[in-house]
Amino acid sequence: MRENPMIIKSLNPWYAYNLLVNFKNGFWFLGAVFLCTTGAEALYSDLGHCGKNNIRFSWTFVKICLILNYLGQGAWVLKTHSGTVFPEEINPFYQMMPIWFLPIGIVIASLAAIIASQALISGSFTLISEAIRLNIWPKVKIKYPSEMKGQLYVPSANWLLLTGCLVIVFYFQKSSAMEAAYGLAITLAMLMTTYLLSQYLIVKRVKSVWIILLLVVYLSLEVSFFIANLVKFSHGGWVSIVISALIMAVMWVWYKGRKIKNRYITFTHINEHIGVLKQLSKDKSVPKFATHLVYLTSADNRDQIESKIMYSILQKQPKRADIYWFVHIHVEDQPYTQQYKVDILAENDVIKVEFRLGFRIDQKINLYFRKVVEELVAAGEIDITSRYASLAEKNITGDFRFVVIKRHLSYENELSVYENLVMDGYFMLDGLSLPEDKAFGLDTSSVLIEKVPLVIAPPKEIRLKRVYK
Fold it and tell me: I want to staple 184 with a disulfide (CB 3.0 to 4.6 A). Which of 97, 237, 262, 336 is the partner?
C-alpha cells in the first residue's frame, strides 16, 4: 500500500457502482464479489454460542483486518500486473508474501480455515438440536460437555459433516470449483434469514411500513446476489440444491409422518377411568407390576389420556400399581423455560405431571421427575413409601417403573400411495433415530418399551364367508 497509495480510492463506492452498471457483464461480478461477504455469515452463526457482545467486539477487528488484507492484495496486483490480464491461477494472498514467511502464512491460513469451519459445525449442532425440540427432525443423541447454555455436541451430525466434506472435496478437487456451490448456498441462507426476520417483526407487531422498508432494502441486495450466483448453477451450484433437498425431504417426511400418525391417536377422558384404576390398585388377585407406574403421554389436555395407555394398563396386561403417574412434556417457544405443573387427580392413586421445557432445554425427564417427586414428598402431598408391609416397616421407598408405548404401522392399514411412502419413510427414520427412553433421559433398567399397532386406515369392508364343509 505504501508503493500504491491510490488503492485507497477503491473505498469509494462509486467505483463499485460504475463497474456494475457501465461495464459489460459487470452485474455478474457480484457472484465473485459475494464470496467476500460470506465470512460475516459464518461469524454470525456463532451468535448463540459466543454471545452477541463478543461478536460485535470481534467484528470491528475482523472488518479492519479484512479491509487491510484486500487493499494489500489490490496494491500488489497494481504493482505487478498493471495493464495486463491477471492470471486466474495466481493467488495474490500467497504471492505477496516473502519467501521466508510463506510456510508461516500457509499455517495461519489453515488455522483460519479450521476456525471458520467451527462456525459451521457449532451452527449445525444448534440447528439439529432445535429441530429435534420442534419435532421436525428424528431424535438423535446429543451430548452436553458442560453446564453452559448452548454448548452441545451431536455425534451423528459431526459424522455427516465429515462425510459430506470428504465427498465434496473429492468431487470438486479445487477450491475454485467449490465457489459456485458455496455462493448459492449462502445466498439462499440469507434470503431465508430475511424472510424469518420479517416474520419475527410481524409477530412483534412492528409497523408494516418498517417491515416493508426492511424487505425492500435487504431483498434488493440479496436477490441481486442470488441472480448473479444462479449463473454458476451448472458449474456446481446444483450440489447445494441437492443437499438442501435431501435435508428438506427428511424434515418433511418426519413432520408429515408425525402428523398422519397423531391424527389417528384417540384420547379418552381420564376421569372416566379413575375409579377402575383405584380398584385395580387394590385388587390383590392381580400381581403387582410396580409400586409407581409412570407413562409418558402426549395429551396436552389435563383431563385426557391416550386410549392406548388405558388399553395397556387395563387390557393388554393388567398392570397393578399403587400410584399411576402420567407425564406430559410441553415444548415452549422460549428457549430456556424450566417449569412443571402437578395435578393430583386421585390422592395417592393417580397423578399427572406436565413439564414445560424450552426448546433448547435437554429433556432429562428421569432427573426432572425425581426432583418433582422429592418436592411433592417434602410438601407432604404424596407418600412414596413402599406399600409392601415388610418394606413399609423399614420406611423403604417404592420402586418406579416407566412404560414407553412405541407404535408400529399395522398391516391392517389401507393407505394411499403417497401416505404409504410417507409412513414408510417415517418409520425408517424412526428406526434410525434415538429410542424414546434414551431421548427422554430415562433409566433403561426401569423402562418397559411396549409396542402397539397403529391402525391409520382400516379396511372399509372385509369379505369373508363362513363355510361348514
Answer: 237
